[in-house]
């Protein structure tokens, strides 16, 4: 009996400050999306003249993505901690899988975009004609606006389902997550240009709620 008690006592506890991870992810991801949307033309057939003009802004936006991804991993950890032993294995698997796939596609898209920028810095006069630019634009567009956004929607659906079952956060946030996830699943980049912002805003809402609940529980735990 004593070893079990020792393991229970020594169990790592999630720091309260970890709830800030979702806020950090949301802020960094929103800044990155806004910079890219306001500088890169929506038309995939553009001539690439924006690269020389807005190179620093786009490079900065891509530079923020790895840090946003790290914060998102912490956010997933915060949600799993709140689920605890009550998590459903099926929805927990979908939750983890969709979150990690979203992150992987985001990183791949960022790497391709960074590669296009590096190619421009090396051969600025030959980038567009070489075909690298056209491929990079199409690949990044598909990864972000189709695959990553759809995985984010699945993440929202699975998280909202678990939240309703175990009351992880208020039900109205969960129902809002279902509605926004449906919008993301049915949308296309041409119709809803700013749809990628829906996901970080929803994460920001959840993180704010978790942070407030953690702050309210501080006096009680210290008494």
Describe the structure.
With 223 residues, the protein is mainly α. It has one domain. Helices cover 78% and strands 0% of the residues.
Give me the secondary-structure topology:
Layout: H1 2-9, H2 20-39, H3 50-83, H4 89-122, H5 127-130, H6 132-166, H7 171-186, H8 198-216, H9 218-222
Helix pairs in contact: 2-3, 2-8, 3-4, 4-6, 6-7, 7-8
Structural Rg: 20 Å
What is the tally of helical segments? 9
- Kindly state the number of beta strands: 0
Largest sheet: none
The portion of residues forming beta strands comes to under 5%
Give the gist of this structure.
This protein is an all-alpha fold and 223 residues long. It has helices spanning 2-9, 20-39, 50-83, 89-122, 127-130, 132-166, 171-186, 198-216, 218-222.
Defining key terms:
mainly alpha; 78% helix; elongated
């Amino acid at each position: 009996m004593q070893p079990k008690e020792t393991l229970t006592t020594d169990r790592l506890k999630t720091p309260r400050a970890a709830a800030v991870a979702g806020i950090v992810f949301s802020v960094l991801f929103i800044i990155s999306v806004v910079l890219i949307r306001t500088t890169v033309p929506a038309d995939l057939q553009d001539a690439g003249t924006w690269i020389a003009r807005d190179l620093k802004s786009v490079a900065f936006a891509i530079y923020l993505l790895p840090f946003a991804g790290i914060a998102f991993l912490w956010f997933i950890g915060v949600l799993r901690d709140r689920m605890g032993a009550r998590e459903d294995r099926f929805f927990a698997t979908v939750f983890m899988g969709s979150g990690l796939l979203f992150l992987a596609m985001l990183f791949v898209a960022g790497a391709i975009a960074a590669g296009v920028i590096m190619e421009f810095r090396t051969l600025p006069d030959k980038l567009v004609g070489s075909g690298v630019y056209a491929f990079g634009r199409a690949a990044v567009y598909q990864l972000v606006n189709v695959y990553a956004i759809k995985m984010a929607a699945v993440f929202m659906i699975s998280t909202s389902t678990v939240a309703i079952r175990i009351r992880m956060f208020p039900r109205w946030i969960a129902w809002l997550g279902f509605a926004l996830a449906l919008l993301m699943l049915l949308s296309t980049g041409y119709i809803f240009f700013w749809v990628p912002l829906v996901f970080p805003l929803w994460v920001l809402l959840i993180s704010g709620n978790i942070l407030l609940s953690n702050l309210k529980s501080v006096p009680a735990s210290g008494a």
